[in-house]
Amino acid sequence: MGRILDRISSPDDIKKLNIKELNALSNEIRRFLIKNVSKTGGHLASNLGVVELTLAIAYCLDMPEDKVIWDVGHQTYVHKIITGRKDAFSTLRQLDGLSGFPEPKESEYDVFSTGHSSTSISSAMGIAAARDINGDKYRVAAVIGDGSMTGGLAYEGLNNLGRSGKNVIVFLNNNQMSISENVGAISKHLNDLRTRPGYLKAKTNVHSVLDRIPVVGEKTARFIGKTKDLIKYSLVSGSIFEELGFKYIGPVNGHDLEELIEVIDRAKNIEGPVLIDIATIKGKGVPYAEKNPSAFHGVGKFNPSTGEICAKGGDPIFSEVFGKTLCLMAEEDKKITAVTAAMADGTGLTDFSNKYPERFFDVGIAEQHAVTFSAGLAKMGYKPFFAVYSTFLQRAYDQILHDVCLQNVGVTFAIDRAGVVGADGKTHQGLFDIAYLNHMPNMTVMAPKNAGEVKAMLKMAADMETPAAIRYPKEKCRDEEDKETEYGKAQIYKVGVEVAVVTEGTMFYIGQKVCEELERKGFYPMLVNFPFIKPLDKAAVKEICERCGKIYTIEDGVLTGGFGESFMALAKEYTYSKVRCFGMPDKFIEHGTREEMFERYGLTSEAIVERIIKENGGN
């Protein structure tokens, strides 16, 4: 017979299977995920947890006519596998391969591009509104995790969808996890729904009583099944979701395909918005992923048999240097606090959370709240460090501007995954933080190139009473301390003539290679690094302009509004020197390794040297 998975190329193939075959397919998909993700890396635990849910949705709904929006989207691997992309799965998150997130350009089954949390309900309501205006009849569904339910946008969507009365099904994937364990009142409420004694006791009693009733005929069996469900569902009525205008169903066992299919088929015929609360286990079916779902949320290559994650070795990454340094600083300074938005592990704050729990705050997936909360801490004399990925910080633009910069309070943003991030692609590239922070009054923007500068900048920020941002990439942090880090000052490494190479952060090392090659070609380049993107060192800019007629800036960010443009604007005050900027173009950058993206967009030392030589008459 062969694998059932080999017969699956679309959701229509799912509909041909019986429950026994669907359960067998679930096991095959889990094995397929382990085999492939162990080679490419990716979001494993979240996908293991939604295998049955994904199959049940495909079985009950008519995709692609029916529209399904996946919140965050990192849990769509199973969806991709059953919608004609399993044969390309070895290219997942690889250059020019499958995206790790929904990508409408990739498939008609991917309705909406997602990568950030809490967006699915609002987008689903918009799609449903368009459907109703057009007089169409297709169904609309949103799949959202309980971690995403800590985001304010989810409740804006719930509030409006609930009062709209529109036919939308919201599947709440309730696994009590986001990346780190869920926190907050909403998480507690959802957990209570899963575990309330009344529900569990009643379910047991119903089964024990009904199982003793003789079953005579199919109609009696159906009646008993409905009675079980009606009693079960009635016990959780009056929840927060019903108050918002939803018909609430649940909790439902998210790993019981028969129960899932029955519930979804019933929900399809209910008028108005419906929320189905589905209890799942993150990492389901794979012991090491179930035991440590955070480690296998977004994981690199690993041993599929043991779960052992391949060691990278060498220098620590920037996140680790940040976390270790902040712990040491907090030991001496009792005013230092740390804030995270459900990403203690990813941002290097796990040790801090264990050592200083009273000064550690995980606010859940709620970046806007995290920023304003930090502003409140700073207003009262504390020194909050909000550690956050660049791509997620941009969600809190107004709070940074209005609640931190306008107040001019000492919040420090430790911006992780700044610049090109690699395999997560378009939705996660940290290319925009320089541009959106540069124009904010009172803000200092720093870019360390090595461990020495990370330590110096963190200590500097702790002593400041004004906003500061320290941006660093997802890569190894060199254990070096070569130049003194002085506030607002550039670092001149080579005093040259005619041609200047100007860098920020870790792009210094590319600039260094550029200059070495230029010297071999007979040039005498000037090399200057700017640890401070804002404020720019005006004296250094003036000196560079006086010495060199052609200046080349290199940055790990988008060119529009970035470091190079700031340098160019200041340079115009001093000279007619020509400034050329190397960075990322005005587009959303696809997935691939940092090295591959640098190669593709001309940010390697070889590509930069070639351009400089071409523009300066060399060979």
Mean pLDDT, as a whole number?
Answer: 89
Oligomer state equals: single chain
Q: What is the helix content?
A: 40-55%
Radius of gyration, Cα only, in angstroms?
27 Å
Biggest β-sheet description: 7 strands, mixed
Instruction: Using the alpha-carbon principal axes, give the shape.
Output: globular
Rounded to the nearest angstrom, the distance between the terminal CA atoms is: 65 Å
Name the structural class.
Answer: alpha/beta
- Total of helices: 25
Q: How much of the polypeptide forms β-strand, as a percent range?
A: 5-15%
Spatially, the strands of the biggest sheet line up as 7-6-8-9-11-10-15
Please characterize this protein's 3D structure.
The protein is α/β, with parallel strands linked by helices. Helices cover 42% and strands 15% of the residues. The strands form three sheets. It has a seven-stranded mixed sheet with strand order 7-6-8-9-11-10-15, with helices on both faces. It has a five-stranded parallel sheet with strand order 1-2-3-5-4, sandwiched between helices. α7 links the parallel β2 and β3.
Give a brief outline of the structure.
With 619 residues, the chain is an alpha/beta fold. Helix 16 packs parallel to helix 18 and helix 21 (507-520) packs across helix 25. The N and C termini lie far apart (65 Å).
Task: Please give the structural blueprint.
Blueprint: H1 11-14, H2 19-40, H3 45-48, H4 51-60, E1 67-70, H5 77-85, H6 120-134, E2 140-145, H7 152-164, E3 169-174, H8 185-195, H9 197-210, H10 217-234, H11 240-243, E4 247-253, H12 257-267, E5 274-279, H13 287-291, H14 318-332, E6 336-340, H15 350-355, E7 360-362, H16 367-379, E8 383-389, H17 390-393, H18 397-405, E9 412-416, H19 433-438, E10 444-446, H20 451-463, E11 468-471, E12 491-494, E13 498-503, H21 507-520, E14 526-529, E15 532-534, H22 538-547, E16 548-558, H23 563-571, E17 578-584, H24 594-600, H25 605-615
Parallel strand pairs: 1-2, 2-3, 3-5, 4-5, 6-7, 6-8, 8-9, 9-11, 10-11, 13-14, 13-16, 16-17
Antiparallel strand pairs: 10-15, 12-14
Helix pairs in contact: 4-12, 6-7, 9-10, 14-20, 16-18, 21-25
